[in-house]
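Let's practice the habit of predicting before peeking. Look at the sequence and jot down your guess about where helices and strands might fall. Then scroll down.
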Amino acid sequence: MLKKPVRTGSGLLLSGIIALLAYRRRSLSRSGVVGAMITGTTTTGMGGWSWGMALLFFFVSSSLLSHFREQEKERTAADKFSKGSRRDIGQVAANGGVATLLAFGSGLTASPAWRQLLQAAYTGALATANADTWATELGVLSPRPPRLITTGKRVAPGTSGGITPVGTAAATGGAFALGLIFWLFQRDRRRQRSLPLLALLSGLGGCLCDSLLGATIQATYSCPLCGQETERRVHSCGTPTTLIRGLPWLNNDGVNFLATLCGALLALCLKPFFTSRRDVVE
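Done guessing? Here is the structure:
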């Protein structure tokens, strides 16, 4: 009876410390601190420690990668992205919102079968977020220009829907690493040994969905003065931009949310292939 309140309080304390440190390192904005605390507290309190540790791994690894060769990335693709490296509450919700809702649902059910399904969906959602973030942060440093996933056309680094071998390899590593960490914190790792592979497949699938959405329906603008494509409504030069493709209301945060949802659904579809009678959920 006392497990959830204790976990919730511990999750609040831990997420608060991590979020404040991230704010001081300029990885989170003030609203991002609030979002991270809500996400971390809910996930740990309702899902459990293994769920909270997986979320913590995603957040810490993503924050570290966002500062890796930061100045080089700023020179290469800063004008492309709608937001900077300091994540706000919208970015936190876009990447971790689906996973948090699944953790909340897991805490409300007493059914082992439902908890298994929610755990699988959580794995897919968070693996997608980790894969996409690693792909973005490292793919933009690729020595080869990216190619648009829909046409194969070469595009500038940072273009939504552009993929590179470096980014794909980073996505693969990010998805698998998330599943591995989640598996390592399970009570019975032998019975949960499929988690890394489930995370790999669903995370890559969700990341692919992100690229497809980015290349097709995500809002993309052009600066009439500079002629550069960007995700921003107002370019860094101060000129209002013009929509050239996509839906005006669907920004990168919306695409990330939909991609994590795709990853969660894909994991649910794959779950029966990894389920045995002896599977249990922590």
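How did you do? The beta strands are 147-148, 162-163, 220-222, 229-230, 242-245.
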